Amino acid sequence: MDDYTKRLVLCFSEKLDQAKVGYIEWNSFKLMAMRATFQQCGGTHKDEVYEMYLQQSKLWWDSLVRDVGADAQGRVHYIDMANYVRGISKDAKDFEQLPEFIKNLANLVFLMNDKKADGKWDLEEYRNGAVGWCRYVTGISDIDAAYETLMTAADVDRTISFDRYKAIVFEFFTSADSNTPSRHIFGPLELCNIDLALTTSSKQ
């Protein structure tokens, strides 16, 4: 498995495989809708918000099955997703040309972490997302260090705007560089954790 595939497998494992079973199924998306509701609503459940996320998740799941394909048990595997994204993203010129389910994932993550609803992330919002969604984070210093790698001289207010975020996400899904800072856009991500993301039920 090359480093590009490892990066995507780790991302899909953390962000989509909510039950941590080693693959993705419809139940993963239902659980994700519930978690997104609680995160968006400050730890409370609101039916109208949950239904919104559930409807979005169903459209998202249907597009994933259509584009990538499910096995006989209705499961979508990380490797198949990574191969699909590699194939369709190699000619992409910007974020808008990425696969639909990738854009949906990126938009959902940004929305959930943008607690101030001002169209950008600051360090505290990045920390909140990393703690809530990253499996292998053990210290706040790791999160802060990952955030720093995403900063450039142009980020004078030390935040990540939505446009900058989309550009970094595009690099995450298209760059062949093992050490690209973009690997941290969804939270700290280190390739050495790849074995922890796979189970005996994972396609390898």
UniProtKB/TrEMBL annotation:
<dbReference type="InterPro" id="IPR011992">
    <property type="entry name" value="EF-hand-dom_pair"/>
</dbReference>
<protein>
    <submittedName>
        <fullName>Uncharacterized protein</fullName>
    </submittedName>
</protein>
